[in-house]
Task: structure prediction
Amino acid sequence: MPIIGIDLGTTNSLAAVWKDGKSRLIPNAFGEYLTPSVISLDEDGTVLVGKAARERLISHPERSAASFKRSMGTGRQFVLADRLFTPEELSALVLRRLKEDAEAFLGQPVEEAVVSVPAYFNDAQRAATKRAGMLAGLKVDRLINEPSAAALACYDPSQGDAAFLVYDFGGGTLDVSVVDCFENVVNILAVSGDNALGGNDFDLAIAHMYCQKNRIEFDALSREKQAILLQQSEQCKQTLTESPVAMMVLEVEGLKGAMTLTGQQLIEGAKTLFGRMRTPLLRALKDSGITPSELQAVVPVGGSCKMPVVRQYLNHLLGQKLANPGSPDTVVALGAGMYAAMKAREASLKELVLTDICPFTLGVGIHNPADEENLLMSPIIERNSALPTSKVENYYTVSDNQAQLRIQVFQGEAMYCKENQKLGELNLPVPPAPAGKEGAAVRFTYDINGILEVEATSLSTGKAISTVLVGKGSGLTEEQARQRLKELEKLKIHPREQEENRLLLAKCERLWEEALGEDRDIIAQVVRLFNEALASQEGGRILRARARVQQMLERLEAGLSLEDMDLNTDFYDDDDEEDDEE
Result:
């Protein structure tokens, strides 16, 4: 039974499937690939999805909903006529339509899907997406970050090693990923984003510019007139993608007026939005350690990247032309289709590896001497750590005769825990002792499905407790989650002790004994660099370093000299990077 890939978008959604050796888009009932992410409730109670629903946004705004993806995981409710819907229920209706279209296209039932999400979706938003899949009758135990899906679709192994940046700017969200590709590995180095920034915000900015020019109070307009104005603003924006000038003319009572708009005027009128576009871009580059000049390509993804002003702005920031990945609207779905095939163990993709990362920092709350009621965030797994991963930190009591350590788990980047998202907690009993004498080793093990295992082990007694934190609506019980984490047990062994790494080091030692002169010096240097990568406990860094060691061993065993190896470029030397604490 096929697994499909779904791009569940703010404005449009679409699906793909691996067929005839490639990822193929699935047409809907109209023979089109894009299905508007819009729901409307007809007067007789019929639920309309897609194009028909989009047409009713203006005529029946009180019965229609769009852009609900932005509210995933928030608890917000949408009122359609006299019925309440959660964002995941509305998303489920879109997913169900895509499921039905896929079944019609493939001629067989579809029960499982990989769904793409913004890289910056938090635990609650990801759990809500999985819950939407469940409500649609789909098994969704794997999510893929949207820019990761785009990177997968754009990867061309024939081009050799390459670092590129994916700028995924859709209707409602912005994601930026820096990607390192080598030897059939697509390695995500860093992600950043803004879950509340997209093309819809440009529509709203144009609507406010129109209102200002024609002395209209936007907030005083009825929902119907606001919908009309936003639709006209969207058309004006789309005209600017094809023409240097666009004209808005409305003859509706209360909206009468006209406005001419150029790209430069849009830049000036929406300068706040452009500033917000810049922030995640710079953060992703900084976190990745890659400079703009080291990028082989900048890949624009998402409908908002069709706007010339957006492309010009990216050219200005990065100093290079943007690549052409095909249609920006469909590349994420094609990548999700590839990832679905990889999950199904498609033979033609068995050599391809996608490493993903943790978009948010995971840590525990620790005592704040300056304000005891305001816990400080102590990171254990930093944002942009390669997944799956397992890391451990030690924590100690702060009071004399303290009876237990309360371990509260948080997700986020704020210094103070109250500004981050609390995921759960556990309490470890410790023997009475002076402050700082008792403590615990706290280990986080986190996998690509968003399952976090927290273990706490008393440093003095060896007593251990653990819990598995799974997002609400994931469809997994704690026991099922624990079963999955059993597959990751080897992560709890330091990378230096893992069998495949010990084997490589042993081979290096043997070949050093057999080598002479400069080859010996190079082998010794490679071993040092590999040990530094192992000490970092960073999966992506270790993966690349291991590939370089294997390449070196192959050259030696083929009787080739290593004298022409440039370790700075051939080995991925991260010597200047600061290792993560254990």
The first strand starts at residue 3 and ends at 7. Residues 100 and 559 are 58 Å apart (CA to CA). Confidence is low (pLDDT under 50) at residues 568-582.
